[in-house]
Amino acid sequence: MRIENKVAVITGAGSGIGLATARLFVHHGARVVAADWNEEAVTRAAREIGGSIVPVCANVANEADCLAMIDRAVSEFGRIDVLVNNAGVMDLFQSVADVDNDMWRRCMTVNVDGPMYAMRRAVPLMLAQGAGSIINIASAAALGGGAAGAAYTASKYAVVGLTMSTAYQYAKFGLRCNALAVGGVNTNIMSSVGDRPVDQAALARIGAYHASAPGTLDPIDIANTILFLASDESRHLNGALIPLDMGWSAA
């Protein structure tokens, strides 16, 4: 099997892309630590998936939670081979003149600090093993300025920078790091903004860009590519930013 017996930590595994990835990984023989801030959702997901999967309640904006989820993989399964930084939050589509500090910090702490905390803990473990694959979920918003607001866009550009730096720095030590520039996906990410209203004026400005999207993907479409990046089939792929958007970024 493609990733049989590999140990993976997947964030945001209670729903959407993370849930689809956890299910696919277990199906292909991996042992999974499924992390999510929503303890009820991730516990239910693990119960439904069955097999070698351990649910962990973790808010990736909290460094201690990130360390604990990586350590849980080691305590449960003895190692970590794959890290999927999928957890993320959306903004309200506000431009830089309108975004407030709370929204800016929320996008940065969850979308950037979280992957960094997890990678900082996982990378030394992977280096000691001489192998490891990190997959960061970026966005079409990391390829231009029209897909989201200033906070989300800046956070996803930062994820790409973190990916490239990691890929280059550790390329000779068996560690790989790649990112997916994901387009529109059928997930519940907009629920991450809570009850706050979307900036309608900003949304109207970026409407032309969104209208050029060829379509919307399903979480399993992303999960299949993550599986490839986690497997040895992609062992020579490192530092790549792969657009997974049905050609949206080609417009």
Describe the model.
The chain is an alpha/beta fold and 251 residues long. It has one domain: NAD(P)-binding Rossmann-like Domain (Rossmann fold), CATH 3.40.50. The protein has eight helices and seven strands. A seven-stranded parallel β-sheet has the order 3-2-1-4-5-6-7, with helices on both faces. β2, α2 and β3 form a beta-alpha-beta unit. The model has no long low-confidence stretch (mean pLDDT 92).
Descriptive keywords:
251 residues, alpha/beta, 8 helices, NAD(P)-bd_dom_sf, 7 strands, 44% helix
Q: How would you summarize this macromolecular structure in one to three sentences?
A:
The protein is of the alpha/beta class and 251 residues long. Helix content is 44%, strand content 15%.
* Structural class estimated from helices and strands: alpha/beta
Give the name of the CATH architecture: 3-Layer(aba) Sandwich
Overall average residue pLDDT: 92
CATH class: Alpha Beta
Characterize the largest beta sheet: strand count, sense, and whether it forms a barrel.
Answer: 7 strands, parallel
Number of alpha- plus pi-helical segments:
8
Per CATH, what is the topology? Rossmann fold
Assess the beta-strand content as a share of residues. 15-25%
- For the secondary structure, the number of strands is 7
Q: How much helix, percentage-wise, in residues?
A: 40-55%
Give the overall shape, derived from the CA principal axes.
globular
Order of helix and strand elements from N to C terminus: EHEHEHEHEHEHHHE
Distance between the termini: 37 Å
Count of folded domains: 1
CATH superfamily: NAD(P)-binding Rossmann-like Domain
- Please compute the radius of gyration using only Cα atoms: 17 Å
Poorly predicted runs are: none
